[in-house]
Amino acid sequence: EAVAGDSRADFFRKAALGGAATLGGGVLLSGFPSIALGQKPSKKNDVKILNYALTLEYLENEFYIEALKSAGLSGENLAVARVVQAHEASHVKTLKKVLGKAAVKKPSFDFGNSTANQTNFLKTAVTLEDTGVAAYAGQGPNISQKAVVVAALSIHSVEARHAALLR
Q1: Which residues are CB-neighbours of 99 under 8 A, at least 6 positions away?
Q2: pTM of the predicted model as reported, rounded to 2 decimal places
Q3: What's the confidence (pLDDT) of residue 24?
Q4: Letter string b/e over residues 6-29, b meaning 16 or more CB atoms within 10 A of that residue's CB
């Protein structure tokens, strides 16, 4: 019932985003067994967590850059996309600085039709921001270094505001 009236393209877009969220959730939750077994978070694990976060920030930043170029955004949607993209670029810069030489390189992305128009942009943007909020919240307990916790929590709160704003 929830997909009544959706086109085939909508179905495949939702399936792709759902699959990405499931894959991301699996990666995020992979740290929980170590906690259940009484193992403490480590600096090595912090690097893995931050590199996952950096990859997500690369994704979000590139999504907004592409949307600003091709989604035909206007009015409030255009203003919001500009602000959020600037924040995402700042998140990338922050995480790369914290990680230093351990930072992963930016992968390439194919956003399909998610930036084809304002409607697709907004649906995808909400999904991406929700994923970011969940990623930071989910891995918080697995971070061992105070400086890393501070950086992650500051980004988490911004991602939560993005999700709320885009709704």
Answers
A1: 47, 50, 51, 54
A2: 0.74
A3: 53
A4: eeeeeeebeeebeeebeebeebbe
DSSP category for residue 4: T
Q: What is the pLDDT of residue 1?
A: 40
Mean pLDDT per block of 10 residues along the chain (167 residues) reads: 57 59 52 50 87 95 97 96 96 94 96 95 95 88 85 85 87
Nearest to 147 by CA among 88, 98, 100, 90: 98
How far the first Cα of the chain sits from its last, in Å, is 22
Q: How far apart are CA 137 and CA 134, in angstroms?
A: 5
Please, what is the angle between helix 8-29 and helix 43-70, to 10°? 160
Q: How far apart are CA 24 and CA 21, in angstroms?
A: 5
Report the alpha-carbon distance of residue 125 to residue 68 in Å, rounded: 12
pLDDT at 55: 95
The pLDDT score that the predictor gives to residue 42 is 82
Long-range contacts of 39-48 (CB under 8 A, 24+ apart): 40/144, 41/141, 41/142, 41/143, 41/144, 42/144, 43/144, 43/145, 45/142, 45/143, 45/144, 46/143, 46/144, 46/145, 46/148, 47/99, 47/102
Contact 57, 104 (CB under 8 A): no
